[in-house]
Amino acid sequence: MRIAAPTPWRFAGATSRARRLSGKITTWRVSYSESTVTPLLEVEGLRKSFALTGPRTWAARLRGEQPAVRAVDGVSLAIAKGETLGLVGESGCGKSTVARCLLRVIEPTAGSIRFAGEEITALDGRQLRNTRRAMQMVYQDPAAALNPRFSARRTIEEPLRLHFKMTAAERRERLDAVIADVGLGTDLVERYPHELSNGQRQRVNIARAVAAHPSLVVLDEPTSALDVSLRSRIILLLEALQKRLGLSFLFISHDIATVKYLAHRIAVMYLGVIVEEADSASLFAAPRHPYTRALLSSVPVPDPDFRHERLVLNGEIPSPTKAFVGCRLRSRCPLAEAVCAEPVPRREVAPGHYVLCHLA
């Protein structure tokens, strides 16, 4: 059985209100070509394993085995300057682990990470600190990411104290500019996290990230803890900041509906690997991998007359502790064939559209 390219998706996600608010949220997108644009960030063969401990692993260790969770198992991606790459997938597929490895919050087990042409996996001390200034992160939980002892002003000011030699007047000038950029009122910046709403806390997190003049910002599910109306505002804020400051984004989310409105390209992740990657329009118009199709078919559409064929994945997700030879989805995929047990090549099914599937 071969997977035929489906008809274009009629899609309306949770952030459709953002389109009504802006009226032009998708009009400024740019097409990126791997052959003509030098990537700001290049990742090749990234792997991260976490060793297992406890009584259940003793027998395996006696046999000379090293049981481990393969959270990230060979991820390769690239992000150009000014581009947004969306990284989507269900919870537990390894998205946040990828983000933490890129910023060296945790150390990768193997692989290459090049930022602005420099290999950063071997950096340490002051070199790593200088690189981290240019690579900032916005975390999922806006409350947990803030120091409860710091006011919003002190939180935003902290990167300036760490990375720049500034006078108090220069810091104040930079702070005022950042506060205006993210839409925080001057009365709010003197408050502490418990005195702010979730949306205001996330604006503080975004302000802290952009205060250091980074080139790349990793957004680890920045809207998942917010209600729908706040998600729209945060998406519009990120769009405006990217256009004004020339930022590159790695936008991580399990909500493919939200990612669609900000990402130029989308990479779909499953069990530690990227199974499909394409520009946003192509991925939604003609998804090729069964997992991508299942994700898209599960997105609710606010139209009672709209019908589309659902692709349902049955069964349990395989354990990430096992070594995979064939397709990782084959035990759940209703389209699986015998060939799916063989090693899966990464195929370019259209210009810039890559799929990890025998049947695509």
What does this structure look like?
This protein is of the alpha/beta class and 360 residues long. It folds into 2 domains: 16-134 and 214-311, 3-Layer(aba) Sandwich (Rossmann fold), CATH 3.40.50; 150-210, no CATH class. It is 30% helix and 21% strand. The chain contains 11 helices and 12 strands. The protein has helices spanning 16-22, 58-62, 95-102, 125-133, 152-163, 168-182, 198-211, 228-245, 256-260, 280-285, 290-297; strands spanning 39-51, 68-80, 84-88, 110-115, 118-119, 135-138, 216-220, 248-253, 265-270, 273-279, 347-350, 353-355. The strands form 2 sheets. The protein has an 8-stranded mixed beta sheet, sandwiched between helices. A 4-stranded antiparallel beta sheet has the order 2-1-4-5, with helices on one face. A hairpin with a 2-residue loop joins strand 4 (110-115) and strand 5. Helix 5 packs parallel to helix 7. Residues 1-36 have low confidence and may be disordered.
